[in-house]
Amino acid sequence: MNSALLLPTVLAGSILLTVLAGWVADRLLRRAAARHPETPLWDLLRPCRRALQIVLFAALLRGAHRYATAPLLQDDAAAVGHVLSLVLIGVGAWLTVGVASAVVEAGYARYATGTRDPARVRRVRTQVTLIMRVVTVLVGLVAAAAMLLTFPSFRALGTSVLASAGILGIVAGVAAQSTLGNLFAGFQIAFGDLVRIGDTVVVAGEWGVVEEITLTYLAVRTWDERRITMPVSYFTTRPFENWSRGGVQMTGTVFLHCDHSTPVDLVRDKVFEVLHDCPAWDGRGWDVAVTDTTTSTLVVRVIVTAKDADDLWTVRCTVRERLVTWLAEKHPDALPRVIVDPAPAVRR
What we know:
Layout: H1 3-35, H2 41-45, H3 49-68, H4 77-114, H5 118-149, H6 152-163, H7 165-175, H8 177-192, E1 200-203, E2 206-213, E3 217-222, E4 227-231, H9 234-237, E5 241-242, E6 250-258, H10 264-276, E7 281-293, E8 298-306, H11 309-330
Antiparallel strand pairs: 1-2, 1-5, 2-3, 3-4, 6-8, 7-8
């Protein structure tokens, strides 16, 4: 074959085989997903076909580039092969991460579907997220090392690097002490079940929901939609409140400062009425009691329950608002008052 036509022929054949392989892989994945709808693995693998096509295309060109290189590029055949090898390694790492992510996500989806305990689902979600981050980092490091080893100068440098690895390891460990501490704290959080994605926590005087956990930092979304980002080592070195630990059900209190003439029994009946009209109340329990008294007021404590922190906030606000409104309308004398005695007359 004419050398001028050999390169276009190889390119056209490689493109045709790549497109055909992608089409066949997509059809097979669609058919597998239709036969097994109970698992999402096949649908999750479909986006990986792009990486598969690029890997196949790079492999075909890598195998045929020496024979199909145009006359003008004969002197650069080694450089072209080197570039194709780098592309093949990089896209192979991309394909590996994609397949691993699809397998892990499919396993998590099946576990979440068959498990009724939300706490276990959140724990597995946290572990799966961190495991995938570790796999991505490891595959990236291996791919980068493989790329560097394709350069002869780096292969020659490998012996001296290995010889000084001990000293470099000590220096790097001292320099990256905080980073390594956060890294190990991330593993401790993931597999020690200290905090999970979706948990309601109180940190630095703010309460919110854990939105993201990585190997180095943790993000908490507060009730007013702010994001508090802090190193994961914070949760292994300082005390914090986890309202979702041991179940998401919660008990809260509402305090009212009333006059001594307040009809506590009627307040108790009103609280019972308010709770039964509040959808956020879970019905587990409630109570009304006078917990303290001062020279001018009574401290009435109302205990309410809810299925989670968000509903508890709703119940507390509802009880507080409706009780104050009811007292103002029906028993205005029960509201706290400031009694001011008239000043004694001054004799002249």
